[in-house]
Amino acid sequence: MNTTASTLNSPRSTLLAGRRAIVTGGSNPRGIGYAIAHALQQAGATVISLDVAPASTTTPWTSLLCDVAKEDDCRQAVQSATATLGGLDLLINNAGIVGAAPLDQISDSEFRQMLEINLLGAVHMTQAALVALKQSAQESPQPSPSIVNIASMAAYRGGGLLGSAHYATSKGGLISFTRACARELGPAGIRANAVAPGIIETDVTIGKFGDDWEQQLKSTIPSGRFGAPAEVAQVVVFLASAMASYVNGAVIDVNGGIYMH
């Protein structure tokens, strides 16, 4: 079964009807961010995606340019998006980069860039969105406004096939930031959770391993395959919905069972 196609082509629902969402890193049709934006829209949300790269003219939602590593970019993009949406209920911090290199070969600038995009990008976006999210919580406390951060299995493993020390550090920091947000913002009626994907079929992974190595790698995954972006997206929809109303500070693994803890 083509999981990506079957999920992305699923009929619309009203699970997130009336909800207003921002998704970062949503311009690549083969990426996790795009799948998240699509799934949120299919669940009834109105979506605006932000990305440093222009989105396709056929993207079925509004897309704005934003470099999440730049605090001013985030502030301006959130201001524009919330004005267009009429408020904000859901913030999905997905934008990120990967990189693999031995520790002694990672330059200071490479380490800083990884942290600036993968960790500080989520910090900038969350800070910029707080006023709108708190207003949403006051106006309509149920379902509660929600922040979902896209972390990685690499945060647990100290890196991986496509991500080294700087990548693992950035994603580990993102998980800690998620928990800090859950603790601090929970009393204000805002939930914060994270999703930690394993190996997902995106441009980052497709064709990177070679057929023999790919088959060997899949054999180590209890589910026997790599994941699809849409499978990550559906977990985000759950966390953004009223079904997860008492889920706060959680990290949900989407990795086919390759890592359990």
Layout of SSEs?
Elements: H1 3-8, E1 20-24, H2 32-42, E2 46-51, E3 62-65, H3 71-85, E4 90-93, H4 108-118, H5 120-139, E5 146-150, H6 154-157, H7 165-185, E6 191-197, H8 211-219, H9 229-240, E7 251-254
Parallel strand pairs: 1-2, 1-4, 2-3, 4-5, 5-6, 6-7
Characterise the protein shown here.
- Helices cover 42% and strands 13% of the residues.
- It has helices spanning 3-8, 32-42, 71-85, 108-118, 120-139, 154-157, 165-185, 211-219, 229-240, and strands at 20-24, 46-51, 62-65, 90-93, 146-150, 191-197, 251-254.
- With 261 residues, the protein is an alpha/beta fold.
- The two termini are 29 Å apart.
- Strands 3-2-1-4-5-6-7 form a seven-stranded parallel sheet, sandwiched between helices.
- It has nine helices and seven strands.
- It has a single domain, classed as NAD(P)-binding Rossmann-like Domain (Rossmann fold, 3-Layer(aba) Sandwich).
Q: What labels describe this entry?
A:
261 residues, alpha/beta, Rossmann fold, seven-stranded parallel sheet, 9 helices, disordered N terminus
